[in-house]
Amino acid sequence: MVSIPITFLSSQKRLVQGYKTDAGWDIPLPQETRFPAHSYTVVPLDFSVNIPKKYFGMLTARSSIYKYNLSCNTGIIDSGFLGVVSAVIFNHDKKDSIVEKGTRLVQLIILPAEQVTWLIKPSVEALDVGGSLRGDGGFGSTGV
Questions:
Q1: What local confidence, expressed as pLDDT, does residue 135 receive?
Q2: Is the pTM of this model over 0.85?
Q3: Which of 14, 28, 42, 138 has its CA 20 to 30 A from that of 59?
């Protein structure tokens, strides 16, 4: 288990874990929020965290966000970032949407961050040292 310091900047003083086995911690909206039609809104979530080295936070939508015709761009919170965590939310509706304080639209997941060393190769062919079945097959290469 990892202990992570957290500071709440409003009266909203908790993240919610639905079940002890859930990967994510739900984040209640700290205030009623208006989402303009067909627009992105940056929503400060009124907390800061100090994620330890070798970990990162992934801020992503909860599955129930669709009920509001909203979506959340996934965001990465690197260790060392001490600012206010914010979510970028898009309203797909033709009209503005107002969501009440305490509604849980997004969640925070803490994951290990593997340290990487890049091995520069002279060509794409040089990358395939183990006989890849996929090769350079990209979008739709395995069928629809």
A1: 60
A2: no
A3: 138
